[in-house]
Structure formats: C-alpha cells, structure tokens
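Format notes (please read before filing issues)

Several people have asked whether sequences and structure tokens are stored in separate files. They are not. Every record keeps both together, in the order shown below: the sequence lines, then the token lines. Line labels are part of the format and must not be stripped during preprocessing.
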Amino acid sequence: MILVDTALRERAAANRPIRVGMIGAGFMGRGLASQIVRSVPGMRLVAVANRTLAHAERAYAEAGLELVVADLSRHIDTAIRSGKPAITQDAFELLATEQLDCVVDVTGAVDFGARITVAAIERRLPIVTMNAELDATVGPLLAHRARAAGTLFTGADGDQPGVQANLLRFVRGLGVTPLVAGNVKGLQDPYRTPATQRGFAERWGQDVHMVTSFADGTKVSFEQAVVANAFGFTVGRRGMYARDHGGHVDDLTSAYDIDELRALGGVVDYVVGAKPGPGVYVLGTHDDPRQRHYLELYKLGKGPLYSFYAPYHLCHFEVPNTVVRAVDFADATIAAPGGPRVEVVTTAKRDLPAGHVLDGLGGYDTYGVAEAHPIARAQRLLPMGVAGGCVLRTAVPKDTVITYEQVTLPPGRLIDRLLEEQNKMFT
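Then the structure lines:
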C-alpha cells in the first residue's frame, strides 16, 4: 500500500495526525508504540490502556515520551489536547474519549477483546485488531456489525493473515485465481507446553502462553481461519495439509491436486520448514493460455499453479499502514465479508479427567486445529476461542476434539453470546 506514505506526509504537513489509542502494552504493543512514535510522522499514539499500568508506562518510556496518568475519559481528552500522551488502566475510558481516530487491540484476550471491539464499534471507531484469536472466533459477526455501524473491523498488515491478504489481492489483480493461501512455520508440535517454551519466551521477553500457542499449532490455525473467512476458502482436511517441506515454496506448485483445489474453491494451509521463512505464499492458476505463455516467460513456470510469496512478515512495523488504510481510505486489510468458512476447534493435548477446568490458549490442556465450519457446527465441536475456563463433564482422551456436549461454559461471557449470534446470523 504505497499510497499510505503520501497520506501520512500530507497529514504531517497539515499538523493533522491520525490519533491512535492502543489497548494492550505487552511485547507486541511496546514494539508498536515505538514504531508509531519514532517512525510514523502523521500519526500520534495519544493514549494506551493496560490493566497493569506499569506496562503502559514502559511502552511510552521505551518510545521516549513523557506521559500523563489519566483515570477518566475527560482527563484523557485534556491530556491529548495538551499534546501529552495518556495512560489508563481502563480500556473503556480510553474508548470513551473524543480525541481518537482509531483504536488498536493488541491484547490477544478473546472475551476482553470482544468487549472492547463491541464498544469501539458502538462508538463508530475503526478498530484494528492484532487479536487473531478473537477474529477467527467471531470476526465475521464483528466485521458485519462494523459495516452496519459505518466503520471498520480489520486485521493488521504485518501479521501473517494481513500479509496473505495483501498478496491475495495482488494475485487477483493480475487475473490469477488464487487456490492456496499458505503460511510458513519453523516449528509444529501440538504437545508443546509453557514448560517447554519458557526459555524461549524469557529470551525474547514474550508471554509464555502466546509463545506456546505459536509452537503447538493453535496460532497458525487461528491465522489461517481468519484468511479463509476473509477470502471464502476452506481446509482440505481437519488440521490443513500441514506438510513438512524443507525446500522453497515455489516447489509446492506440484504438491497439490489442482482439481481438488478447484472443487473446494480454494484452501488455506501451512508448511513447516520451507524457504523463505517465516513468510507466506499464494498458489494460483490462470485460465488464459496466452497469459500462461507470458507467466512462463516471466519465470513463473509452466503452471497450472503459479507461486507468489512474501519472504517475511514484520508484525508491528506494518500496523500503522492498516491504521491509515482504515481511517483515510475506509479499506480493511483483512475482514470477513460474510459468514465463517473455517473454525478452530479444541483438541486435547493430554488425557483430561472429568471435572477439569480447561486452561485455554497456549496452556497444558488443549491445542487448536482448523476445521471446515459446516463440519464443526454439525458435530458441535467446541471452538478454541471459547475453551478457556470450560469445565469438562466427561473425561477426554488425548488428541480428541472436544464437543459442546462435553463441557459446561463459564457463565456470563460476551464471547459465547456473540458466537451464538454469529451462528444464527450465518446459518
């Protein structure tokens, strides 16, 4: 999206920066704060909300800014008007301020993420989510609600779903029909736990549960579900094809059955160990033999599948692009245009006894796998995004997908109500 730099320069010259509020100030949030403050003229990070105030303070300190501690929206407004960034423990006070053009969710928490997203949509604020867990669970409903309210709910540039979305749009613009949207992983072991991943998390200063969800395959399942829901794709089988592939992604053009891909209408997938990593790839076909001649001339091979890829994803570095696209161009980086196509379902990481309370994402109990939405609904499979806090009614053997009939849901959660509404709306 090259045009966003021009839009930002114009805003900077007019002293009319986009005013961004950020909710969540963990590892990724701190990186985003520094990026906006130090590298994005034409944009201001005007307020940060985090339940642990010290983390919000750290985000601004690492970015080199002095700040104001504000507990009410009117105090946040006053601080922003005076040119000082504000921090608060109350995300809803941040969302109530008048001095915002966009909000970014960097929490990774499903039910809380749902609450702040609903509040932002009710305020008609564009919301950029880095919360793939929420997006994969009820993103189709939230995107629908945002459109109805005249605003946007969108995933972010830089995260692998956003990078795939940009690549898919590029490929479609060439007249090529995308049939595979893929993610490149370096590791996949569904039995990883916080105990096995603690050293890595501590080395990089990341949350150990988030790191575990990367390693056990839950995160890639959420990410690919987001892509599938946005582009009308499905999965070739439960868990995706998920091949080990040590070669280049270009070699994958011979790994798929094109007739199967066409029959399915396109699939999401991932590979482990491919080069260049950790990037993304799109495989597509072209129906015009004259254009296939040109594609071969341009070194994309003889077809029928052609490979396109991005060799990296730069997460928080690219999120400001999404903010500009949302605020100035009403363009979502990635959002579902209709109902869900793929769900992430909850699978036992170990033998689990009756009466056990599931520990949720990146824990010791479960991992998530991608499944076609019609199958997940017909079999009443428990979405991974709502699994945390559920109480098992029956024992569940290792590697078994858990159903709604096997759990008691925690009372009063918004995420459960939203999921029920989504299922009714798009059935």
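For reference, the curators noted about this record: The chain has three domains: 3-157+318-329, 160-315, 342-426. DSSP finds 16 helices and 16 strands in the chain.
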